[in-house]
Amino acid sequence: MRSVDVIVDGFGRVHDTVHRVVAGLTPEELGWRVDGQANSMAWLIWHLTRVQDDHVADAAGTEQVWISTGWRERFGLPLDPMATGYGHGFDDVSSVQVRTGSDLLGYHDAVHQRTLEFVRGLQEGDLDRVVDTSWNPPVTLGVRLVSVLADDLQHAGQAALVRGLMQRE
Known about the structure:
Blueprint: H1 3-22, H2 27-30, H3 41-60, H4 65-68, H5 71-75, H6 90-95, H7 101-120, E1 130-132, E2 139-140, H8 141-168
Helix pairs in contact: 1-7, 1-8, 3-7, 3-8
């Protein structure tokens, strides 16, 4: 198995978890929060997808799916167009509302497909390419992809927990 195959498998696991979390929920349920300081499932899924979109597009040298295919307009969020959720406060989290779970899944699916296309096209040596020199040591493509994957898995798990808590109410 190649390293990129492991990365593809990891993003597949994120994708599957996102679909399990969102399945059958209404927009109101997706926006449910444990309390006023907690993240909703809608925000968690939107955020993990935005970060993946942002970081993979940067590494691939392409435009983000959010911008290039109309998802930003479809969601119509009152946020900076390039916002990914980093640094969001409670009001920002509240502003991430979805019209349908299908929109959330549609955006996630589009980013997932773009990610798989990019990762499947990589060769082993590509993972050593430096993609960010602002860190010491500089960040390689392999480290960046694993970082995105780890962040996505954490947020997908958090969203699954929120769903479970909501369903206990």
